[in-house]
Amino acid sequence: MTIESARGTPVELVDHTSLLEMRGISKRFGGLQALDDVSITLRGGEVLALCGANGAGKSTLVRILAGVEQADGGEIALDGRVVPIESPQRAADLGLNFVHQELNLVPKFTGLQNMALGITAGRSGFVATKALRGRAGEVRELLGYDIPLDVPVEKLSVSDRWMVSLARSLMRPARFIAMDEPTASFTQDEADLLYGVIRELTTNGVGVLYISHRLEEVLLVSDEVTTMRDGRVVGSHRSDRLDVVSLTRHIVGHEVEEPTRHVGAKDAARGPVRLAVRGLGRKDKVSGATFDLHVGEVLGIAGLAGAGRTELARLLIGADRPSSGTMTLDGARYAPRSPHDAIRAGVALVPEERRSQGLLLGESIDTNLAVAALGRARTMFTGFSPRSSRRTGRRLAERFAVKTDDTSRPVLSLSGGNQQKVVLAKYVRTGPSVLVLDEPTVGVDVGARAEIYETIAGLAREGTSILLISSDFDELAVCDRVLVMRHGALVADVLGAQATKALLTRLCFRSGEVVPEDSTTR
């Protein structure tokens, strides 16, 4: 089969039995053995899923394949021929394409300009805009997704940005595509579109390496699953011989319980009101939000992409100013002018986009754990010392199971899931009375997810009030109540025991579903 390059040159692709092999790959970072004799095989026209707990070595393996990191040992073969991959450009020249979990896009560039990055210019020194736009149109048609070509990506939704990144990888000849947590911010319809694209690619002989913590999704899209643990491959299985329970066991090495509501959850909604929100709104983003959050309650907010959940969270922590409404915290007026004001008052947000909003990527794990607590200090000279920060960093890293041998290492050296644990620990350290969690387990493995749920339950038992925003309706099983948000408005209040995935889905789409007794619609 053939795939056209961005300049329309046909590139012949041959479906080999083994398209890609990584043999005996090893990599060490300081005292941490990130990869230990790892071998994987991907056949042309198939989807190989790579699964493992955070810190298992998946991201490091992909970075070596992409030429970003160099292995200490082992070799990479394409079509049975050993090839050195010393740089990302070399990987691209070999037809290896990557869509990373943390998207590498230029915010000020348009969708089309980002899609053009990395395309080699012709003899004239530039790529013809007409030809480029034509190729972009072909890629959009293949994806079945209306990517905004002329809008700066900083103004696009997370899912739109991901589609721009995927489209960029398809602008060049593709033999192989690695996708890291591709549907983390997708609606179900968007995910279904992606599954169709993957089927089209594999039909044409492209090999796909698929990394996801959504195990049902892994089993749906993959032909084979390779699991990793502690830097080693622990098994490879055909997907049709696995189910979620057995795959979970391969990943973590033991059974993992489903999330359950914390002990005492039944009484939480009857306790004192911690945060009272009345008629809170902002232009066309949030409309008249009214609800109570009680002491020790875990209150969920469900909704589709664009429903206004994140916009509501930003109002609660002072990141945006409301155009209407009032709030009280423990009976006193609460009107934060900034996130720092909110932290001082005892309200903290763990943001969805951890890298851009939750972390100082160039700083150490210790420093990242310290900075939020400084926000609650009355002056910049209060409450900070390097020695105590290191001590606290080690304690929090142990409590939240952050996989690192040294908390003085840059936080950027951690896997995505371990970075998420640092963000969570960072804000828990501030001792908030209200903790807002926006998609807290996106990109987090099944074992770490269970640990985060237990942390949420533990904080609630201690009296912390939790507002949990999630597009994963199964995750909302940890909540005492679930508010449903649609088009910027809160439209239903469902008791946790009745908040099934089916009911929440129907309420989000407003199909006329009758809410169970003891719950309310608005």
From TrEMBL:
<dbReference type="InterPro" id="IPR003439">
    <property type="entry name" value="ABC_transporter-like_ATP-bd"/>
</dbReference>
<keyword id="KW-0813">Transport</keyword>
<dbReference type="GO" id="GO:0005524">
    <property type="term" value="F:ATP binding"/>
</dbReference>
<protein>
    <submittedName>
        <fullName>Sugar ABC transporter ATP-binding protein</fullName>
    </submittedName>
</protein>
<keyword id="KW-0677">Repeat</keyword>
<feature type="domain" description="ABC transporter">
    <location>
        <begin position="263"/>
        <end position="512"/>
    </location>
</feature>
<dbReference type="InterPro" id="IPR003593">
    <property type="entry name" value="AAA+_ATPase"/>
</dbReference>
<keyword id="KW-0547">Nucleotide-binding</keyword>
<dbReference type="GO" id="GO:0016887">
    <property type="term" value="F:ATP hydrolysis activity"/>
</dbReference>
<dbReference type="InterPro" id="IPR017871">
    <property type="entry name" value="ABC_transporter-like_CS"/>
</dbReference>
<feature type="domain" description="ABC transporter">
    <location>
        <begin position="20"/>
        <end position="255"/>
    </location>
</feature>
<dbReference type="InterPro" id="IPR050107">
    <property type="entry name" value="ABC_carbohydrate_import_ATPase"/>
</dbReference>
<keyword id="KW-0067">ATP-binding</keyword>
<dbReference type="Pfam" id="PF00005">
    <property type="entry name" value="ABC_tran"/>
</dbReference>
<dbReference type="InterPro" id="IPR027417">
    <property type="entry name" value="P-loop_NTPase"/>
</dbReference>
